[in-house]
Amino acid sequence: MQLNTIKPAVGSTKNRKRIGRGVGSGHGKTATKGHKGQKARSGGSVKPGFEGGQMPMHRRLPKRGFTPLSKKDYALVNLCQLEVFEAGSVIDAEALLKSGIISGVRDGIKVLATGDITRALTIKAHKFSASAREKITAAGGSIEEI
């Protein structure tokens, strides 16, 4: 084997289509653009969403909703998820991240009342739902708002 005899595998390479290079190429004359019309002209094409002058769909449909600039995105934690911790332990953002209950703190942590809690835990979070507060204190735990 010599370097000057190496060739790519059969069928692995393909010649590019050279349009507008004479009738003999098979892609001459109109250069694959067909006959006349807007799309055959230089620089001629319509932008996405253009419907021939008819009012386009994105303008016919009504606008709906908005995104408030002051919206907070809390990492949500349910009480049933806190059962993995031992009684008397302090649960903060670091403990929740380490256990894999939350993936990131974002704008804060909010504890929700889904499920039951049977252990007395000290929970440090940014927000608590009213029913979550009741369940935590009923189980003998304490709440610390950060």
Structural notes for this entry:
With 146 residues, the chain is an alpha/beta fold. It contains 3 helices and 6 strands, in the order H-E-E-H-E-E-E-H-E. It starts with 56 loop residues before the first helix and ends with a strand. 10% of the residues are buried. The model has no long low-confidence stretch (mean pLDDT 93).
Which secondary-structure class do the elements indicate?
Answer: alpha/beta
Element-by-element helix/strand order: HEEHEEEHE
Largest sheet: spatial strand order: 1-3-5
Count of helical stretches: 3
| Uncertain segments | none
How far apart the termini lie comes to: 73 Å
- Mean of the pLDDT scores? 93
What is the total tally of β strands? Answer: 6
Largest sheet: 3 strands, parallel
**Cα-atom radius of gyration:** 33 Å
**What portion of residues is helical?**
10-25%
- The proportion of strand residues reads 5-15%
Form type: elongated
Give short descriptive properties of this protein.
146 residues; alpha/beta; three-stranded parallel beta sheet; 6 strands; 14% helix; elongated
Task: Briefly say what this structure is.
This protein is α/β, with parallel strands linked by helices and 146 residues long. 14% of the residues lie in helices and 14% in strands.
Outline the secondary-structure elements.
Layout lengths: L56 H4 L14 E4 L11 E2 L1 H7 L9 E4 L9 E4 L1 E2 L1 H9 L3 E4 L1
Parallel strand pairs: 1-3, 2-4, 3-5, 4-6
